[in-house]
Amino acid sequence: MKVVEIMTKKLETIEADSSIYDAIEKMIDKRIRSLLVKPKDEKDVPGVITVRDIVNKALAKNLDLKKAKVGEITSKPLVCVDKGMDVEYAINLMSKFNITRVFVNDGKEIIGIISLLDVMSAELIKKAKEGHRA
Amino acid sequence: MLEKVFFGGKKEQQVTEKIRRHIEILHTAAECFKKALEERDKEQLYCVPDLEREADSIRREIVSAIYEGAFLPYLRSNICRFVEIVEEAFDRLEDAASVLENVGLSLDKEIEEDCITIADKNLKMSEMLLIAFDTLFGKDDLREKTLAIRIYEKQVDEIKVDLMKKLSEKEVKNFWQGKMLSDFVSFLTRISDVIEDASDYLHIINISLR
């Protein structure tokens, strides 16, 4: 099974100079746990801000959420997997870096995201289909 | 063993074959609908009401056969209810196809991709419902199949939330345009709920066979 088959195409982004509070609002409104952080300039690379980053790097350190910028707690570089790779490769990456999601790229473009929940759901569906005659 | 006791009679086998056919037609209709949406193909769309009529006729045959004596009496109402729920999935699919025809098979770009994804999930759910139905007569675990259906349904729910938000932000130029779009999304997203209800009934039937 390839990552492109099970990835989520819904990618939400945020500017690096937005406040962490903006990021929290966006995550709650969109019911998601991570945001793709846009590069600041041409020399910069995209990053990711997750709920884990907000809790560990902002709330735990008493940062002022309305003043502190997303860029201050963004994780870079992105851990990516090519769209044509097997899901097993993505699972290994998640395990190796102790993360719950990886981004999916098509060349230089980020086209989706794959999470542990996506992997689990896809595996359960695959198992349910096994050995069926239709 | 269960197969022999509960489904082994000639009448029962005829009915189960018809129920299977009923679900197969749902799967074909869901496939036609998805293709029509993807390719904006009116001919594909017309096969949905045609298949609905065929399915309706099979449903009548199933219900008649059941009340003519197929299956033990305590199983009959649950099997009939299951068939009626599958029929409701056909109705919603036909409603969605009818509205899609009225809007000229053309949806706004912002919502088209989400609608195609939901149509694809509906198709996969109908396939899984067929697999789940076959499980009643085999050794596989029905729980695995109904869980897969619930996973698909949750995925549709998530897309629905986004879709409703996009719709609420969209400018509506006239009442009927807004109503048709709203109806289309309601019908399309209702199908997954109904298929999930049908799978719940399979679970009830499975329990009542123990």
In short:
The complex is a heterodimer of chains A (134) and B (210). Chain A contains six helices and six strands; from the N terminus they run αβαββααβαββα.
Structural descriptors:
heterodimer; A: 134 residues; CBS-domain; 3-stranded mixed beta sheet; 6 strands; B: 210 residues; mainly alpha; Methane Monooxygenase Hydroxylase, Chain G, domain 1; 86% helix
What does this structure look like?
The complex is a heterodimer of chains A (134) and B (210). With 134 residues, chain A is α/β, with parallel strands linked by helices. Helices cover 40% and strands 19% of the residues of chain A. Chain A is built from 6 helices and 6 strands, in the order αβαββααβαββα. A 3-stranded mixed sheet of chain A has the order 1-2-3. In chain A, strands 4-5-6 form a 3-stranded mixed sheet. In chain A, helix 5 (87-97) links the parallel strand 4 (80-82) and strand 5 (101-106). Chain A is globular and about 55 Å long. The mean pLDDT of chain A is 92. Chain B is an all-alpha fold and 210 residues long. Chain B has a single domain (2-208), classed as Methane Monooxygenase Hydroxylase, Chain G, domain 1, CATH 1.20.58. Chain B starts with a helix and ends with a helix. The chains are: A alpha/beta (134), B mainly alpha (210). Chains A and B meet through helix 6 of A and helix 5 and helix 6 of B.
> Please, what is the average pLDDT of chain A?
92
What is the C-alpha radius of gyration of chain A, as a whole number of Å? 16 Å
Rounded to the nearest angstrom, the distance between the terminal CA atoms of chain A is 20 Å
**Helix/strand-derived class of chain B?**
mainly alpha
Give me the secondary-structure category of chain A.
alpha/beta
CATH class of chain B: Mainly Alpha
Q: What's the order of the H and E elements of chain A?
A: HEHEEHHEHEEH
Which CATH architecture of chain B?
A: Up-down Bundle
Number of domains of chain B: 1
In spatial order, strands of the major sheet of chain A run: 1-2-3
Using the coordinates above, name the CATH class of chain A. Alpha Beta
Most strands sheet of chain A = 3 strands, mixed
